[in-house]
Specification:
The protein has ten helices and no strands. The protein is mostly helical.
């Protein structure tokens, strides 16, 4: 399928004008291989609202779920903070609910601004890069994610982390690893790529340029993981670089599907290293 066959975001049936809420649609970028690739019906102000919404909902979810744990499982209020931070089941459930609320927020914004399909508006398009189609780009993207994971593992040998990272407390039991593996393969790539590469990147690239948009999106991606990696500044820097690589895949192909596959390959290789024998993959 040629990229010329992909209709621009503004090609759907027009909505009735609403002077109170209407936002002018951005102009197409000159020379963009995919028409209106970065012309989203949301802007930098909407990113700020998303940031506030995400912080508030995460705070409320954490406290509501902690209160439920205290009542249902009899955990002492003095121990709840440590329990919340080290129980993989709690963390995974909270993250799934949190991402669900964020996706509902994105749906509300997009549904109000445009009649175009939700996922397509967020950049989920068929893979095409020049003459290369999905048959080559899908395995190449997965392989690229695996290579990123290998590079991150090699880089970890040069870190001098003085203490145990917060995320390591979630990997102390096999059940905890299984919870995190399901989340890391089925939920995190879909949700994070939709938010960062689908919602955040187009606005930053449109405002600051493609390269700066890739850099800023990668930095934000790394910063979101700071609480899990607090004290591991080398790991955080590596994750920023990984985030930039994922964003570059999205920018090159004009499709969030590409960065999703890179993300899936990255996470898949990491979790494979936790279960396969050391002779196959070293963890």
């Amino acid at each position: 399928m040629s990229s010329d066959a992909i209709p621009p975001l503004g090609s759907g049936p027009p909505l009735p004008p609403d002077p109170a809420n209407a936002a002018p649609a951005p102009e197409p970028l000159p020379g963009s291989p995919v028409a209106n690739d970065l012309a989203t019906p949301w802007d930098i102000f909407d990113l700020a609202i998303l940031f506030i919404f995400s912080l508030v909902t995460l705070y409320l979810l954490t406290n509501l779920m902690a209160a439920f744990v205290i009542v249902r499982f009899g955990v002492s209020p003095k121990q709840i903070d440590q329990w919340v931070a080290t129980n993989a089941g709690f963390v995974v459930c909270r993250q799934i609910l949190w991402f669900g609320l964020i996706l509902l927020f994105l749906y509300a914004v997009i549904h109000r601004r445009t009649a175009q399909p939700f996922w397509r508006t967020l950049g989920w398009r068929r893979l095409r890069l020049g003459k290369l189609g999905a048959g080559i780009l899908v395995p190449a993207s997965l392989l690229g994610g695996m290579l990123l994971a290998i590079g991150a593992d090699v880089a970890s040998h040069f870190y001098k982390t003085p203490k145990e990272l917060p995320i390591e407390a979630l990997f102390t039991t096999r059940r905890g690893v299984e919870y995190l593996m399901v989340f890391g393969l089925l939920v995190a790539p879909l949700a994070e790529e939709t938010v960062f590469r689908g919602y955040v990147y187009p606005v930053l690239a449109r405002k600051f340029g493609i390269l700066a948009g890739i850099a800023f999106t990668g930095i934000l991606f790394g910063m979101v993981h700071v609480p899990q990696l607090w004290g591991g500044w080398g790991q955080i820097a590596t994750l920023v670089a990984v985030g930039m690589a994922m964003t570059a895949a999205r920018a090159a192909t004009h499709s969030v599907f590409a960065s999703y596959l890179v993300h899936l390959g990255y996470n898949g290789f990491i979790f494979a290293g936790l279960f396969l024998p050391p002779i196959v993959l070293r963890h």
